[in-house]
Amino acid sequence: MTLQRNIAANLASQVYATLIGILLVPLYLHYMGAEAYGLVGFFAMLQAWFSLLDIGLTPTVAREVARYRGGALDALGLWRLLRVLELLFWSLGSVGAAAMWLASGWIASDWLRVESLPQSEVLAAVQLMALAIALRWTAGLYRAALTGDERIVWLSGFNASIATLRFGGVLPLLIWVGATPTLFFAYQLLIAAIELAWLVRRAYASLPTLPPGKRAGWQLAALKQVLRFSLSIAFTSAVWVLVTQTDKLVLSRVLPLAEYGYFTLAVTVAGGIVTLTGPIGGALMPRMAMLEARGEREHLIRVYRRATQIVVVVAASVALALALGAEPLLLGWTGNADLAHQAAPILALYAIGNGILAVAAFPFYLQFAKGNLRLHLIGNAVFVVLLIPTVIWAATHHGGVGAGIVWLGMNLLSFVAWLPLVHRKFEPGLNRRWYLHDIAGIAAAAAAAGYAVSLTAPPSSSPRAIQLGFVALIALVVGAAGALASSAVREQLRTWWRPAQAQTS
User: Fold this and answer.
1) 10 Å Cβ neighbour count for 344?
2) What's the CA gap between 475 and 459, in Å, rounded?
3) Rounded Cα distance, 341 and 358, in Å
4) Which of 25, 84, 232, 470 has the smallest number of CB atoms closer than 10 Å to its CB?
């Protein structure tokens, strides 16, 4: 299985799951209502916080399975590790589910600001969430084993199928049976159980058979051998959860549930930027690490800068389209003028913040290639220390817009103040060229083009198709302007153009 095919399958699966989750939101809002959809956002946020229990073990599983395939670990050692991790995952999942179940009454009555939904519905929904989240988290162990075995194409298809069932399969129930939170989350629990059972079956089938007469057993020594590596990953993972979920946790307490639903909608749409650009980084890091190992410094920097320009073009076209066309997009997409008016400022702020975040990830790729993450860990620690109290204050006093301002401001501060320190440490002399040539010129051309198009915004009374077409036009014009301003994209276009021209001559 080629690396390119795995990357393409993974990207297609992620984009599909993100799009189907976003595109069906208007139907959820229509049948369930904004307040019930706020529970869906609360469910997604709890899943992210639950991942803190992982302590870096799922990436470790993938690594150990890959090491077995490379001959560094035998079948017995792999199975012993898997057995003790199964015990750990199922135990932690059970404890987490029990804790959430016991707290469900307090969450439903005191934490969430429910205005119209029956209290019994909210209570039952939170209890079902607890079970579904625990099952989905446990499934991560077996998904990691399949990832390490490079069953990426199968796993991508499976993830897309589960996303279809999770997001789309519930609609017939909402339409013809009942649009209640209890029914919605009971269905999510069923799909989580099916997902876990199928992944267990597939992972067991793909793993090696034990030598005759050998049993894996429960040996904690197998866990001790990988615990140091997993804990180093756990820190970065925990920081990511704290950075991306603190605002959502605070706002679930501060905002009325219906308004929290609007906030969730805006943040979900803005999150598509990271989904689109993330797989590029996933493919870039091993290539840069290989070039660093070979001592091909100039080639590494060339790849680094070209990839930066490509991500800037992609991130700018999406982020500016979402920011400049936030209200027309939401109005044309949902048909709900009140929702569009409330969520548009939040969408604009988070879209620009996520666009900056997508580009700001590049110095981490450089540190990864160099094999030195010390500055990355320090930077993340400082970011969290500054972000959490600030976002708590802003969200408490200014709601979703306040959280959005902090998110944009903190990402911009990191981009301007911290990233130059990373470049100065690992590649002196790169910083000025990277900022001015690879980012600033492209971003300026894209922003100018987007602003010019935004001046022709249709009135709010225009048909929904016109509103959506306007946003698509912004994305197209911004993408074209950014591509023309990028030397890397122009060079790639010339590379494609010459063979095509030769074939026609």
Assistant:
1) 21
2) 19
3) 27
4) 232
Q: How many CA atoms lie within 13 A of 406 on its CB side?
A: 25
Rounded Cα distance, 409 and 348, in Å: 13
List the end-to-end C-alpha distance of the chain, in Å, as a whole number. 36
Helix runs in 70-180, H state only: 75-102, 104-106, 119-148, 152-163, 171-176
**Gap between the Cα atoms of 142 and 148, Å rounded:** 10
Structure tokens at 424: 């100065």
3-state secondary structure 387-428: HHHHHHHHHHHHHHHHHHHHHHHHHHHHHHHHHHHHHHHHCC
DSSP string, 155-206: HHHHHHHHHIIIIITTHHHHHHT---HHHHHHHHHHHHHHHHHHHHHHHHHH
Give the C-alpha separation, 486 to 136, whole Å: 41
Condensed to tens digits (0 to 9), the pLDDT of residues 387-441 reads 888 888 988 888 889 989 999 999 999 898 888 888 888 888 888 888 998 898 9
Residues near 279 by beta carbon (within 8 Å), at least 6 away in sequence: 7, 10, 11, 14
Query: What is the helix (H) or strand (E) element at residue 306, kind and residue range?
Result: helix 297-324
- Dihedral, CA of residue 26, residue 320, residue 391 and residue 279, to nearest 10: 80
Closest CA to 48 of 235, 258, 240, 265: 240
Q: What is the pTM of this model?
A: 0.79
**pLDDT one-digit tens code per residue, 360-380:** 888 888 887 777 778 877 887
CB neighbourhood size of 500 (10 A): 9
Residues in the chain: 505
The single residue listed with the structure tokens 């670990």 is 73
DSSP code of 211? P
Amino acid letter for position 203: A
What is the C-alpha separation between 186 and 121, in angstroms, rounded?
A: 12
- Maximum separation of any 2 CA atoms in the chain, in Å: 75
